[in-house]
Protein 1
Amino acid sequence: MRPGYKSGRSASASSSTSTSSSATPVGVPSPGPTTHATSGVSDAVSTFGLFVTPTVENIVLEMTNLEGRRKYGDGWKGMDATDLRAYVGLLILASVYRSRGEAAASLWDAESGRAIFRATMPLKVFHTYSRLLRFDDHVTRRERRASDKLAAVREVWDAWAARLPLLYNPGPEVTVDEQLVPFRGRCPFRQYMPSKPAKYGIKSWVACDARSSYAWKMQVYTGKPSGGRPERNLGLRVVLDLTEGLSGRNVTCDNYFTSYELARQLLERNVTVVGTVRKNKPELPPRLLAVKGRAAFSSVFAFTPAATLVSYVPRKKNRNVVLLSTRHSEADVSDRADGKPVVVLDYNRNKGGVDNLDKVIGTYSCRRMTARWPLVVFHNILDVSSYNAFVIWREVNPDWMPGKRNKRRVFLERLGKALVAPYIARRERVPRTEASAAVVKAVKVAAAAAAETAAAAEQRDDDSDRDDARPEL
C-alpha cells in the first residue's frame, strides 16, 4: 500500500543549516570507547588484544596444531601463542612497509629486505605457518558446510565479531554499507561487483560510526541460502541486524537498503534513516519521478507524518536523485549556488563511513597472496582489528603525538614490533646478517632489563606487604 505522501515544490531556500546534531540524545551512551575498552588499554598490544582475544587465538592454535600433526606427525613442534602473535606481527609490519604485493622472499632478503623479518623467524617457518593456518577441523567441515557456507572460519568470525559492539559506542551518525575484500580464488560465495575497484571478492555488510569509521558490526555475505532461492528484502534484514541495539541514532545508507518499510521499522526502535531510494519503489509518488521540464538544482518534496521524500535535479537535466528521510520534516533547502536540500547535504556528509574504512584499511593492509578464502577472511579480521584498535587508542589518548599526521603508521609499527618481540627474545640462534643479529641482541637486552625491573618491583611489593603485616610494639 502506498503511503499517503503530500507533495510540494520548494520555491526558495528556506534554511541554510543542516538538522544533523552532534549532541548525544538523553539515555544514549556517550560516543567513544566503552568502559570495558578503556579499562583494558595500556599499550598497542593490549588495545589490539581487545579484538584478537585469547579465545580467538586458542581456536586458531588448536586447529593449526591439529593440521600440523596430521601433516608432519611427530615432527610438528607445535605453535603456541607467542608463535601466532609473531606471525601476526610480521603481517602487520609488512602492511606498515607497504609490502602487500611484495614477495615474502624479498622481505627476508639479506641485502634489500627488512632486518626485523629475518630477526623474528626464518622465511621457511613463516611459509609453514601460512600454509598450515586453520580455523576449523576440515575433517568435519563438509557436514557443517551443508548448512553454513562460512563453516571454515565461522567459530573465529563469531567470536571476533561479537567483540566489536562491546568496545565502542557509535556517535549519533551511523553508516551502513558493503565492503568487498579482493579475492579471485575459489569461494562458494565470491561476489562480482563491477563498481568496486577489485570487482571480485568476499562481501561483508558493515555498520560503522560515520565520524571515526570504527567498524561496529559486520556480517559476511555468503550468497543465496542453501535452498537456492534469493533472500527477499535482504537490504531490510541487513540494516535491521546491523543496527540492533542502537537507539537515538541516525542511519545513512544507499538505495540498496533504503525503503519505506525499513524507515518504519527503524522508527519503532527510535532510529532515523537518511538514504537514497531506487526509483522503482512502488511507494514513490509519480510527481517525484518526473524530470521533464524541471530546472537544474530544483527540488520537489513529499511528506507523510513520519517521513520526507525529496527529488533533486543536479547539474545535468533529465536526471534526478530521490532520497528518503525520517530525520527531516521540513522542505529545507540550502542557500548554496546548487540549491541542494538539507537532506542531500546530510546524506553526503555521512554516507562515506564504510568507504573511508575501506580506504584506511587499504592503505596499511596485511593481506597476502593466497588461494584460500578463509585466510582472506582472517586477514580482514586483522586489518579491521588493527584499525579499530587505533581508533580506541587515539580516543583514550587524545594528546598522543599531537600535530602528527602519521599516527596510524606509528601505532601499527609499534604494535607489530611489540608482537614479535617475545618470539625474538626466546630465539636461540642469532641470524647471520649483521643488521638482523643486532635487532635480536637489542630485543634480548630490552627483555632482560624489563625482567629485572619487574623482579625489583615485585620484591618491593613483597617487602611492603611484610612491613604492613609486622605487628606494632
Protein 2
Amino acid sequence: MGRNHTQTKFILLGITDSPCAQTPLFVLFLLIYIVTLVGNVGIIVLVRVSPSLHTPMYFFLTHFAFIDVCYSTVVSPRMLADLSSEGKTISFSACMMQFFTLTFFATIECHLLAMMAYDRHVAICHPLLYMTVISSRVCWQLVASSYLFAFLSAIIYTWCTFGGSFCGPNRINHFFCDAVPLLKLVCSDTHSSEMTIFAFVSINEVGTSVVILLSYISILRTVLRMCSAQSRARAFQTCASHLMAVALFFGTAFFMYLQPPSSHRSLDKMVSIIYTVVTPMLNPFIYSLRNKEVKGALVKCGRRLFICL
C-alpha cells in the first residue's frame, strides 16, 4: 500500500491560517473533545452499571458511544496539536493510518445506526418476538459483522487513496487526512480510485440508509394503526433520538462523499467539523436528554453514589 509514493510527509493546512483565531479555536475544540469523552464514556458506564438498561437497544448504544470516542480521538488530538504549534507536518505513514482508522470507525457507525433502526423496528412492530429475534447472540453477530465489513472497506479506501504516486505538492487543504484533498495531490490518474471509493461509500451509506428508511416506514405504519395516543407518543419518543443522530451523521456524510470531486468547496471543512467533532459530542445528549430510561437510570445511579458518600 502506498509503494508508489515519493512524498515522505504532508503539511496539513488546518482549519484556519489566521494566528488570532487559533487560540480561541484551540480552547473551543478542547472543550468539545473533553465533553465528547465524558459524555460517551458516561453513557457506556451508565449502561454497564444499570440492569434496567441491559437490553439490545442499549447494547448497540454502548458500541455507538465507544465508536464516537474512537472516531473523535482519531481527529481531535491531532487538530489540537496543529492549532497550538507552528509545524503542521504529518508523515506519510501517520497520514495513512489516520485515514484508515477514520474510515474504519465511520463505516462501523453507519452500520450501527442501521442496526439500531432495525432494533426499533422489531421492538415496535413485533414486540412479542423481540427477545427472540434480537437475542444476545444476534447482537454480537451483527456488531462483529459490522467491524469486519468496516475493516475490509477501510483497507479498500486506503489502498485507493494512497496507492498512487504523490510526486507533486504535499500541502493538504484540510485539518485531517481525508480522501478528497489527498486525491488532489496524486500525480497519476485517480478516476478509477474515485469510482471505487464512490462505489463502496454508496454501498455503506446508501445501503444502511435504505435499511433505516424501510425500518421507519414499517414503524410509521405500525404506529399509525395504534389505538392509544399514549402508545403512539411512546413509540415516537423512542425513535426521536435515533432519527436525530441519523440526520446529523448521514446528512453531513452524504454532502461530503456523494458528490463529484469538482463540487467540493471550502465549506467542506465546516461540514467535516460537524461530523468528526461536533456530532460525537452531541450524541450522548441526544440519547440521554430525550430518553426517560437513561434519565431514570442516571437518577438512580446518582442516588446510590450519594448514599455511598
